[in-house]
């Protein structure tokens, strides 16, 4: 007799599936393919000199590199948490040191929030569409999803009310330039959602991964800041997930989660059990780099990505056949395309890779209810403007041939 | 109305508690305290020059640092996985590339194994005592523990049989110089445990964190190698967790888990959902460093830690009052002290810190059943020999005053 692995696995394992995005990323590495698939920053825009200097400083410091190379506390490197608290305060939310936890990217914050709140069968409210990585983080804890439709102002309030009446554990959303559809939740809608969730005793999880990447239009306060404002300065309803992956660099895996102390302190215990702490040296380096260059670097990113967004929107206006619509995001990395009803994004992707050397992500992956077959996510962050125009020309050529 | 956090938390949150070790580490930072508490490597022995060079190389490479700073695949950096496969083969276990996953320290592997196997109420077999971090990793998945007593050869086979008859999901153990008690599982006992577990269809989880740190006695094959040998070269029953934290440096948070493909591929999906991947640049750097200096550096560590172990054992022989016994580990970082029945390690710790400026970890924390109140874990890894002797002299002075 030997071990029959499938029989030993816990029930939650059934809820896990490979990310279509990540599996796709493996297929499209060929240089002739213009990929709008990966929602990743452009490596040419990484602050490499600042990072190089910061790593070097660790080894040249007078006290030696010992502390940066040793185990550390699960909460995170104290100067980095202080920087995060000051940053959050500059955005209007007063966060105490014991209300912030450094995580290994904001993806880990989503995993911890799933672990903290979700028991088998518990309801979780998400938007329609929503961030695929959030569904992947939550699903191992076996929730039932309730999906809330969106209009161009964000989640539709009638559907928020219907969802809250069913008493979900939390409502998860990406209020700024949402991955995947680029929509930004309006100020009025943000306030209404916080009030309704607070009244229903339902937590709000705000994923602010893209919040700094605004290219035009007025800046809107974060939901955690609005929550803090109505609660005397400190958040009571909103838990906020932040990330340095989009503003600085993804590979160091440094993000954070902040909000009510009761919730954050439980996540500190989770962190200790899950991986002890985030890489010490990477936290020291990230603190050094953000202290030095955060604002200037983000301005540089905004300039570069704005041109790419403009190139994509212009190309879509120039080349898209009738019946195809798309969002006009004010920031972030994504344009969301809606094809005529009955179109199939997955079938289109197969043809696009083979016949047009273009790739994107079919939108259905971003729906908890697996609807949205006629949608596509196009990332404009990685390619230069001319290449974006060429890729959109090729993709629209396929669409014009009735490929959908 | 507002959010009542405690009411929203999932049931598993009740099983989480602060690590006594980590809470203690915060108390004993005063320089006058000789601490045997933290089971951590000596920062003076970190390979800082090799690490510094490796980080610098990332930024000076001809292809630029882009790939090392970008998102990567969840499986881990391919050259590092290749190194791990070659390393495992040198230890007698043939591991294919799709049978190894790079994790953020071996603590993350333990979390993933808990997530993979344990549903609420499932049985998990551990030794008595066992690694506290494993209990912390498993407990959020709500197992019931069955604890197996140890003698100086490892887990007692009668108790292994009794535990296996109850059909646990897996048996977890640290076969080499176990944290906390320093005991090494003998060759015969390893083979017997693998055979019994394979026959019962129960997985074995081998935590090999300390395996390279042997100071004398004959090297014993790892359990995954013995499993592979009886199975034609590849493991079928044993899942192996490895770590660079004890051999190289902890702060980069790089470890691995390897074994049957069915189990490892599920953990790749978990990794994607939990934190996408381990820090890219840290994996690149770790690969560079282990390729350059692994064997030589481990020899250097063995020389230094052997002197410290010897200093602790000699001091205990010289100063310990009658009725106190301790283990004589052939490697690792820990000596385990047993006080007379009825003694209380926690009460002793309070007096030791206050009256003798010495710290250690009371042993009860390492028992799933919270027995072992009369035991202490002493780490000899951080202090130099003279300081170890002085600390043991002080501690034994307290013991001799009838402090227990």
Task: Describe this protein with a few key phrases.
homodimer, 404 residues, alpha/beta, Aspartate Aminotransferase, domain 1, 2 domains, four-stranded antiparallel β-sheet, globular
Q: Could you explain the architecture of this structure?
A:
Two copies of one chain form a homodimer. Chain A is of the alpha/beta class and 404 residues long. Chain A has two domains: 5-47 and 296-400, Aspartate Aminotransferase, domain 1 (Alpha-Beta Complex), CATH 3.90.1150; 65-293, Type I PLP-dependent aspartate aminotransferase-like (Major domain) (Aspartate Aminotransferase, domain 2). The first copy, chain A, has 14 helices and 14 strands. Chain A has helices at 5-8, 20-27, 48-60, 66-69, 78-90, 105-117, 132-138, 157-165, 187-200, 223-230, 261-275, 280-319, 345-356, 385-400, and strands at 34-35, 100-103, 123-128, 144-151, 154-155, 170-173, 203-207, 238-243, 255-258, 325-326, 334-338, 358-359, 361-362, 375-379. In chain A, the strands form three sheets. In chain A, strands 2-9-8-7-6-3-4-5 form an eight-stranded mixed sheet, with helices on both faces. In chain A, strands 10-11-14-13 form a four-stranded antiparallel sheet. In chain A, strands 1-12 form a two-stranded parallel ribbon. In chain A, strand 6 (170-173), helix 9 and strand 7 form a beta-alpha-beta unit. In chain A, helix 12 packs across helix 14 (385-400) and helix 13 crosses helix 14. Chain A is globular, with a radius of gyration of 21 Å. The termini of chain A are far apart.
